[in-house]
Specification:
Structural class: alpha/beta
Organism: Clostridium omnivorum
CATH class of the largest domain: Alpha Beta
Shape: elongated
CATH topology of the largest domain: Aminopeptidase
Protein name: Peptidase M20
Strand content: 25-35%
Radius of gyration: 23 Å
Largest sheet: 8 strands, mixed
CATH architecture of the largest domain: 3-Layer(aba) Sandwich
InterPro entries: Amidohydrolase, Bact_exopeptidase_dim_dom, Peptidase_M20, Peptidase_M20_dimer
Number of domains: 2
Order of helices and strands: HHEEEHEHHEEEEEHEEEHEEHEHEH
Distance between the termini: 17 Å
Number of strands: 16
Length: 371
Amino acid sequence: MNEMNFELAKKLRHELHKHPELSNHEVWTKKHLLEFLKRYTKLEIVDNENWFYAIYRAGKDKPNIAFRADIDALPFQENDSIPYASKVPGIAHKCGHDGHAAGLCALAMEVDQNGADKNVFFLFQHAEETGDGAAQCKSFISLNNIEEIFAIHSMSGLEYNSINVIDGTIQCASKGMIIHFEGSPTHASQPELGKNPAFAIAQIVVSIPNVISCAKNKGMVLCTVVQIDVGERAFGMSASRGNLLLTIRALYEDEMEALQKSIEELAKSEADKYGLKVTFSYQDYFPETKNHIESNNKIRMVCRNKGIQINELKEAIRPSEDFGHYTKLTKGSMCFIGNGYDYPHIHTSDFDYRDELIKTTVELFKGLIDL
């Protein structure tokens, strides 16, 4: 990688880190990235409302390959231990998306300067953390006839600067599930006259271990209690409404859907038992991120050719990623680049993207373009 391009990308990463923005609010971030690409490349820009992409065109008869970077940050308070610490109270880049975006800009500069024998698309996607982004951007695949798409994510607990892959599912499917019960209020001294949802919610919670039993599933299935909110803070009243918030998660998306159905049936049964109304709502939906073997094999080949350490993951990781929306529509792969075994984990206060990973990211992606 050109050293000047690396220095520009590193400076860009630090600027992005100073100005983090939450999912669906990436106004400054998007504007700054657009300005950077317009200043340092001659690439074509396609600007959408919340997201955009840049294009290097090699010719109509050339293959179309895409690379995606996420650009949103997390609701996190960062301390001032680094010189480019977040200037936005309560928001910080603690998942490395600043590094992903800067790395994709670095790749754009390299391709713009040196050319390529493929049409290369650089997708800058919003709202990965909530699962909204890829769902809104997936039309990008068909509109541009994308034949293959790649992405990379930094991950702690893996060998520093190594590339890590697994065939098939690499990240689990998940969604947030809200179960709302509606009963009827009464004085706390006469609970038998009302309809209290606390007992129905309690029955669902204690039933979770049976619902997610390994004997019933091919892969890992999880149901995590996120919040229980029942009644009012008033000792003279018996609760009449309540919400149970769950995160349901599975290695395979079809088993997550089966888990959802089982919990819904259980909730309906408990509602009938206690004379309650029950409704369901969902948010933060993530499909399973499933890698194509052909795309993974290209990553393996590039790593061998360039002397980049390549490791095979033994199993998928539990956290979800919305990149799976793209690999449902075309070939592609998400791989991890190692932060180091003892490096602070993503989504923790001490995490900061390691600048040197930009170089490896760019070399890997350039190799994929050259195949």
